Amino acid sequence: MMLHEDSILAVPVAAHDHIQGNTHAVVTLVEYGDFQCPACGMAYPLVKQLQHRYAGNLRFVFRHFPLSQAHPYAQMAAELAEAAAVEGQFWAMHDWLYENQPDWAPYGGAGLEAGVRALGLDAQALAATLRSPDIDAHIRRDFMGGVRSGVNGTPSFYVNGYLYQGDFDTLVHSIGRVIARQP
Amino acid sequence: MTILAAGTAAPEFTLHSTPDQTVALKEFRGRNVILAFYPADWSPVCSDQLALYNELLDEFARLNAQLLAISVDGVWSHAALARERKYHFPLLSDFEPKGEVARAYGVYDAKGGIAGRALFVLDGDGVIRWSYLSPMGVNPGAAGIIKALEALPSNNVQKALPADAAQEAA
């Protein structure tokens, strides 16, 4: 693992973050992700397995890192997830976007409408929410915080504040080791 | 071979950016320049260093900086890559004599015949203000570039912070 001052989480986890799991968990795993990124799509079920396996010992945080030039609908998907968050549905939308990535990604807005229907969200209220500058501000704040933390691609994972450089299996082991070390 | 350090005058160069266009470093005097040497075109996209920088061009512009990416690949490969990945910055071809510019900056990997993964931040006078050689397989991200640009006297930090970060800092 590379330990370098430019690969430490620059923005601590705070109330405005999207957080799953126990506040007092031994391990906090922060993902910087892009909803249209295939590698993030592949990581999604693996993160779910981690959450299941380590349960109360793991807190998971998702932050936006849309690579808009590479993935033309990534920003739109991030905005949709933020708008769903206003209705308390961030994680439902996060899950839907990754579980259905191959189905919506080629179709942009039309593809994403399926997610709005699947979650039973009010399309008109959602459209109004999407016009709020807070949505963009949240995504931009996540993105630049990621840049300053040394995010170098998607997904990027931080284990207790340190950028993890390596494959997913080793990530699982390193989380397991941190948890095992606890009294 | 040692990477050129901060305080060194950046070696001049003129390289092809397209089959019929060249870019000379001295054209950018008065602006800050980010030189990103990279090993090869066509690395996987999700972990692509240049894809990240492509998202940060507004941020670099705000810090009065121009990004120039350099590899030993030929101009036609660069042209295809820029089109495919929608890059909006020059890809320079250090092709003939191969790796000459990378050598001048002390970042040529003679064994692999490729440029190392190296970053330089140059000020408006063409002086290197920050340099970093990343292990070949490790994408260095952009945190070091942003910090180095913000540290330049011409980029007053208070002025350079985005509005929301300035608020948080206050």
From TrEMBL, chain B:
InterPro entries associated with the record: AhpC/TSA (IPR000866), Peroxiredoxin_AhpC-typ (IPR024706), Thioredoxin-like_sf (IPR036249), Thioredoxin_domain (IPR013766), Tpx_Peroxidase_subfamily (IPR050455)
GO molecular function: antioxidant activity; oxidoreductase activity
Active site: C46 (cysteine sulfenic acid (-soh) intermediate)
Keyword check for Oxidoreductase: yes
Source domain of life: Bacteria
Thioredoxin domain ranges (all copies): 4-154
Keyword annotations from UniProtKB, A to Z: Oxidoreductase, Redox-active center
Protein name, as recorded: Peroxiredoxin
